[in-house]
């Protein structure tokens, strides 16, 4: 059977994904904060227009698929995204998981196996239901699992998320992607924990690795089987693109082209870093930055079409579909 990938509008044959942005966000919010302390820059209709405009622009640039890694903890709302993106000719892969690199809400301390309110693990239950049945009462099934850890390492609560993610991955086959802290080589701890939990590291992306200046760290991640995420292009407050490009070219020179994924971790709207702040501090942090600036620089450095397709088409396809050529 032809491998299928779940998207906002249903399953898509993996071979039809095309050029894929593997680590992006559409709308990042904080629902409780939004209700009680609305952000002055949020205007739903304006954001909807911007979302449609940006996705149409990506389609014109040849992008076929955007993976939206906005999960609970970042204000995931698939109803809103489905409404805003209706009719846009770009596949959108939605994600499950939980975004925290410190602690979980009190609910998770009181509900679950061996908790005050005994029952199944609510994290695992949500992850599996999102993947197999649909997110939040919809028929939109998640195609990716997102987890996070940062400089604090894998805290007790983060370990619960990683454990549930690995089990959901084993049960459903959905790939895992991470938010990592490259400054503390945190991807190695993430790999170790996921491997201990039975995850297939060939179906894992260690996100944000491209911000590291340690080539041996990047090689170690790739040698263990994971994809290395160069996914913050344009994010000037977290590093310079020139440094990311140097590390990327070094890794390519060492033969790791089948372990690299490119993206920008951008958003149409993010409450955490709102539009006015981005305009002032990271004006290139957009979902078209790879195509407008980074890929031309790579081509000038010698990247041919075959290699570009490897990085932007084939590697994301293998990750998302879990095809037999892994």
UniProtKB/TrEMBL annotation:
Cofactor detail note: Binds 2 divalent metal cations per subunit.
The UniProt entry, under InterPro entries, shows:
AryldialkylPase_Zn-BS (IPR017947), Metal_Hydrolase (IPR032466), Phosphotriesterase (IPR001559)
Q: Supply the alphabetized keyword list.
A: Hydrolase, Metal-binding
Which molecular function terms from Gene Ontology are attached? hydrolase activity, acting on ester bonds; zinc ion binding
What Gene3D superfamilies does the database record attribute to this sequence? Metal-dependent hydrolases
Q: Which residues bind Zn(2+) 1?
A: 23, 25, 146, 265
The Swiss-Prot or TrEMBL record lists the needed cofactor(s) as: a divalent metal cation
| N6-carboxylysine PTM positions | 146
Under Pfam families, the record lists: PTE (PF02126)
Q: Which residues bind Zn(2+) 2?
A: 146, 179, 208
Q: Which family does it belong to?
A: Belongs to the metallo-dependent hydrolases superfamily. Phosphotriesterase family.
Q: What is this protein called?
A: Phosphotriesterase-related protein
Lineage of the native species?
A: Bacteria, Bacillati, Actinomycetota, Actinomycetes, Micrococcales
């Amino acid at each position: 059977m032809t491998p299928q990938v779940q998207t906002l509008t249903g399953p898509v044959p993996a071979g039809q994904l095309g050029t894929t942005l593997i680590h992006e966000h559409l709308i990042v919010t904080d629902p409780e904060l939004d209700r009680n302390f609305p952000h002055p820059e949020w205007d739903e209709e304006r954001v909807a227009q911007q979302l449609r405009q940006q996705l149409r622009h990506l389609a014109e640039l040849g992008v076929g698929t955007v993976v939206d890694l906005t999960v609970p903890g970042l204000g995931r709302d698939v109803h809103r995204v489905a409404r805003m993106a209706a009719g846009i000719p770009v596949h959108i892969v939605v994600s499950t998981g939980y975004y925290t690199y410190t602690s979980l809400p009190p609910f998770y301390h009181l509900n679950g196996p061996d908790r005050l309110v005994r029952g199944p693990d609510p994290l695992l239950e949500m992850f599996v239901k999102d993947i197999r049945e649909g997110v939040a009462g919809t028929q939109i099934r998640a195609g990716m699992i997102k987890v996070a850890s940062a400089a604090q390492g894998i805290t007790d609560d983060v370990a619960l998320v990683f454990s549930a993610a690995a089990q959901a991955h084993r049960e459903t086959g959905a790939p895992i992607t991470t938010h990592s802290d490259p400054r503390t080589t945190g991807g190695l701890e993430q790999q170790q924990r996921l491997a201990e939990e039975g995850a297939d590291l060939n179906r894992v992306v260690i996100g944000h690795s491209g911000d590291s200046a340690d080539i041996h760290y990047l090689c170690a991640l790739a040698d263990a089987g994971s994809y290395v995420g160069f996914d913050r292009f344009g994010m000037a407050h977290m590093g310079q693109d020139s440094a990311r490009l140097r590390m990327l070219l070094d890794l390519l020179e060492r033969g790791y082209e089948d372990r690299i994924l490119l993206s920008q971790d951008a958003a149409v709207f993010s409450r955490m870093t709102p539009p006015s702040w981005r305009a002032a501090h990271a004006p290139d942090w957009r979902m078209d930055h790879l195509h407008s600036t980074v890929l031309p620089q790579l081509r000038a450095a010698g990247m041919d079409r075959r290699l570009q397709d490897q990085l932007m088409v084939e590697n994301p396809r293998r990750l998302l579909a879990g095809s037999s050529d892994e």
